Every structure is written in C-alpha cells, then in structure tokens.
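Q: I have 51 residues here and want to know how they pack in 3D. Can you give me a structure?
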Amino acid sequence: MLPMRFMPVQGEVPAWEWDMKTMQPSVAVLPVWEEAKVLAQVFWKCVQAMA
C-alpha cells in the first residue's frame, strides 16, 4: 500500500502537481530512468482518462 499524503474526504481528490523535471535520479537508477519516466507518464495519463 502506498502512503497517502492527504486523505480524500467524501470522494474528494486533493490536487497534486507532479513535475518529473524536478526529480533527479540517483546513479543506481540512471540506466532505467528514462524508461521508468515514460512508463509513469503513460500510467498517469491512463488514470486521468478514467477519471
């Protein structure tokens, strides 16, 4: 289970701005960083489309 920063109340979803450009990968994840970033963007676009 992922931790929740803000618990939704009665169906509300808190606004959350996520900017991948501000994230800096560690050396350990550099080989897969770009692929993971693209997959995350695709995932969240799918989630947004279902909303």
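Q: Anything worth noting?
A: The longest helix spans residues 33-50. The mean pLDDT is 80.
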